[in-house]
Amino acid sequence: MHFDQVPSELEAAKPILEKINEAGFEAYFVGGCVRDMILGQAIHDVDIASSAYPEEVKDIFEKTVDTGIQHGTVMVLDHGEGYEITTFRTESTYTDFRRPDSVTFVRSLSEDLKRRDFTINAFALSSNGDVIDHFDGLNDLKKKQIKAVGVARERFLEDALRMMRALRFASKLDFTIEDKTRAALKELAPNLEKIAVERIQVEFEKLLMGQAAGDALRDMVDVDLLGHMPGEKGMITAEHVSHLANLLDKKQPTTLPVAWLLYLGTASLSSEELSKELQGYKLSREIMGTVKRLAPIVQAPDKATVWDLYQVNDLSDSLLQALDILEVDEAVQTHVANTLRNLAIRSPRDLALNGGQLIKEGLATPGPALGNLLKQIEHAVVFNELDNNAEAIRAFTKEVE
Ligand SMILES: Nc1ccn([C@@H]2O[C@H](COP(=O)(O)OP(=O)(O)OP(=O)(O)O)[C@@H](O)[C@H]2O)c(=O)n1
């Protein structure tokens, strides 16, 4: 396969490859950028691999930064852009299932491609537009399958995170997992427990947001990666994930907080169990907050009072999207949406009279009783028992005295 024209991100980096070539070394675009170019998808990361050793790369270019020299990576600065150039390498010994113990630099492109995870990630593209495809990755793109390079179990033994990567690429691209690759996933799924939670999370989030998340979740159950995910064992059940998968076949979340809400917040956990699960991951405060606050409502939306909804009105969009994906009864969805839209106030700050004003007018004195009074006012306004205007609030205050 040959490309006369390459995307602008790669075109801009071509002079780097040519400069390395002129110095007598090989250099190629490799990894995700070549896969995405062939698929016609946006390129977000340009990776270059070369037969030049790091010191040799540094001799060729004026401005370089040692970003990961022990792994063979040097960053070349060109027109304000930084390009990572990694020396061809083999990664032979792994003991921790994640990082190679020793990196051996080699001069051969095919050695470098051989260590990569999947055939669709093992292309190289030369500066003149030729695609090098030693592992039949083009055919796998056509067949829409994720297939490990060489012996699948070896690739997963080298790096157990690749098991999650297999599912995330399947989800993102709507590909299936090739049989031998699947068999190796089944065999080696327990090794996922050796991987840092942050790294699993990155892949899992991409899986959840992918176009074929439903299939990928079913795969996760099928090969039992589910049983080795972070969090407490057995909390997130196969039934829950399979049910969610069926829902995601039809509609998908547009944000990560909603994705996590669906995954953890609808798993019928008690609030203590949910907190534990949330702590098992390294989620942002925003995601934690959304899941914790909305979980009770998405689990029983028909029971949510106007007060419950008022308390989460800042998360209206997430809540309504979750209820839609969860196929909650239309009438309940409409009721929740209308209640949220028609709230008399959105926060205590919206009250027509605040604590300071009540004190000034001699209607209240500072202290715990004032807090109590304001809560009562807020409550009455939210429940539409009291109009949110100064006159009505004054009268209410006198009444409850
Ligand atoms: N565990 C891993 C991670 C990466 N790679 C190789 O390194 C390349 C770059 O990795 P990365 O940037 O993590 O992923 P991409 O494939 O580029 O995918 P994306 O950028 O879309 O996440 C991959 O294509 C693959 O060839 C690998 O073999 N094993």
UniProtKB/TrEMBL annotation:
The keyword Nucleus does not apply. Residues 174-229 form the tRNA nucleotidyltransferase/poly(A) polymerase RNA and SrmB- binding domain. Keywords: ATP-binding, Magnesium, Metal-binding, Nucleotide-binding, Nucleotidyltransferase, RNA repair, RNA-binding, Transferase, tRNA processing. It comes from the Bacteria. CDD domains: NT_ClassII-CCAase. Its EC number is 2.7.7.72. Residues 257-396 form the CCA-adding enzyme C-terminal domain. Residues 27-146 form the Poly A polymerase head domain. InterPro entries: Bact_CCA-adding_enz_type3_sf (IPR050264), CCA-adding_enz_C (IPR032810), CCA-adding_enz_firmicutes (IPR023068), NT_sf (IPR043519), PolA_pol_head_dom (IPR002646), PolyA_RNA-bd (IPR032828). The keyword Secreted does not apply. Gene3D superfamilies: 1.10.246.80, Beta Polymerase, domain 2 (3.30.460.10), cca-adding enzyme, domain 2 (1.10.3090.10). It catalyses: a tRNA precursor + 2 CTP + ATP = a tRNA with a 3' CCA end + 3 diphosphate; a tRNA with a 3' CCA end + 2 CTP + ATP = a tRNA with a 3' CCACCA end + 3 diphosphate. Mg(2+) binds at residues 45, 47. GO terms for molecular function: CCA tRNA nucleotidyltransferase activity. It holds the Pfam family tRNA_NucTran2_2. Homodimer. Belongs to the tRNA nucleotidyltransferase/poly(A) polymerase family. Bacterial CCA-adding enzyme type 3 subfamily. This is CCA-adding enzyme. It comes from Fructobacillus broussonetiae. The gene is cca.
